[in-house]
Specification:
419 residues; eight-stranded mixed beta sheet; transmembrane helix; membrane; transmembrane
């Protein structure tokens, strides 16, 4: 491309970036400008996902593109916003900057509309549809021979051209559908992402308090008398602290919300009401110390039970004698080598909203459950275990994780129940 053509592309790029589709974002303009400049400098063929992750988003050179899809997600959003920009007829005659599915290098084209002649850049950039070589027209003295090879070839050409175009169209549509197919991770969160209302994250705060015989913690609201917090520090310690593993799980899930541009809010369990849960979908984090989790699991096959004096375990209502999935919270933390967790997706009949539960017996189990529900590979495994209809079906999963010095290992599926 000539310097003049490059200047026209940069002018068009600036025009696009000044619109409301891009100017209110920091991430999208940076990536779009980078790929356009690289293409103008002749380096478009080198634009790969890892290169963009390192150069644009400051990822380390060895980062895992499978678990960190920031480049793919951002490119898809840019592609959508560019399409929205050119959807307006007033932009029909402008130079087009396009990002085709499956590619990171942009293409530059010119519309031959409204009496605007194509520039040299457009002629060089737009694909040329090849036509057959002209066949000499017969003179009056030489009538065409219907059986001649030239005549037969001329008759076959429209059919061949139409068939070729149809193959290209079908292949393009098939690739587009494959490229944009939802992943198992997308399907895992689909009911919450599709529901109306802000997603509520409900986190426990009353870790360490005495529990009722049912396993539910005693409400943390201060009462009159000697149980009433005497200072602000007491109040912070009793009512405001959140366990690190619970917050870590919430942060991991918040990344899913951010990738899908979904609003969410965080509330402590002691401040959450049934009315709050009816306003929109919810993520219930934490098990024994979150009454809302205990309440939601009470009618499901797998649920938490036990006591501080004995131990806690994940009970199976179909095999009530089974107590293999257990943890003694009285053990020294360094002695704990295994923890268990429940991940559940349910459409709560009482609230009328979809809920996802991420809860361990101990803190290591909750952290492992948070890893599980945000991991693409684990969701593919879960999707295979559940089978057709994974996107919409309610289910429970029991997880097991090794624990070393309080740190969980990889979560492993040990039981699945589908409703």
């Amino acid at each position: 491309m000539s310097a003049a053509d490059q200047a026209k592309v940069r002018e068009q790029l600036n025009r696009i970036l000044e619109t409301h589709h891009f100017k209110n974002s920091k991430r999208y303009p940076v990536l779009l400008r980078f790929v356009v400049e690289e293409a103008l400098e002749g380096r478009g063929e080198h634009l790969k996902e890892r290169l963009l992750g390192v150069r644009v988003f400051d990822r380390p050179a060895d980062y895992d593109t499978a678990t960190d899809p920031i480049v793919r997600v951002t490119i898809a959003e840019i592609r959508k916003r560019i399409a929205q920009y050119y959807h307006d007829e007033e932009h029909d005659a402008e130079i087009r900057i396009e990002l085709l599915p499956g590619r990171y290098a942009p293409e530059f084209r010119s519309r031959r509309d409204g009496g605007h002649p194509a520039s040299q850049m457009a002629e060089a950039a737009e694909p040329v549809i090849s036509a057959p070589l002209s066949v000499a027209q017969p003179t009056e003295d030489a009538a065409p021979n219907a059986s001649s090879p030239q005549t037969k070839a001329r008759r076959r050409w429209p059919s061949i051209t139409l068939a070729s175009a149809l193959v290209v169209i079908l292949a393009t549509c098939g690739f587009f559908l494959w490229w944009n197919r939802p992943t198992a991770l997308d399907e895992m969160w689909s009911p919450l992402l599709a529901a109306k209302g802000s997603v509520l994250f409900c986190l426990p705060t009353d870790v360490g308090k005495k529990r009722l015989p049912s396993g539910e913690p005693v409400p943390a609201a201060p009462t009159r008398g000697e149980d009433r917090p005497e200072s602000f520090l007491d109040f912070e310690s009793l009512g405001q602290n959140v366990v690190y593993s619970d917050m870590l799980a919430a942060l991991q899930i918040s990344n899913i919300m951010a990738l899908h541009h979904r609003d969410y809010r965080v509330k402590l369990n002691v401040g959450t009401t049934l009315a709050d849960l009816r306003l929109g979908p919810a993520v219930l984090i934490g098990g024994l110390d979150n009454p809302w989790t205990m309440r939601a699991l009470a009618t499901q096959r797998y649920h938490f039970t036990g006591t501080d004096e004995d131990r806690y375990w994940i009970a199976d209502s179909e095999r009530p004698e089974k107590k293999d999935w257990s943890l003694d919270l009285k053990l020294q933390w360094i002695s704990v080598t295994r923890d268990y967790a429940i991940v559940s997706r349910v459409h709560n009949e009482q609230t009328g909203q979809p809920e996802i539960i991420v809860a361990g017996i101990g803190m290591s189990g909750t952290a492992a459950a948070g890893d599980f529900v945000t991991d693409k590979v684990r969701m593919e495994e879960l999707s295979r275990r559940i089978g057709p209809g994974f996107k919409d079906r309610d289910f429970e999963v029991v997880l097991s994780t090794d624990v070393v010095n309080g740190i969980p290992g990889e979560p492993q599926i040990i039981a699945v129940s589908v409703r």
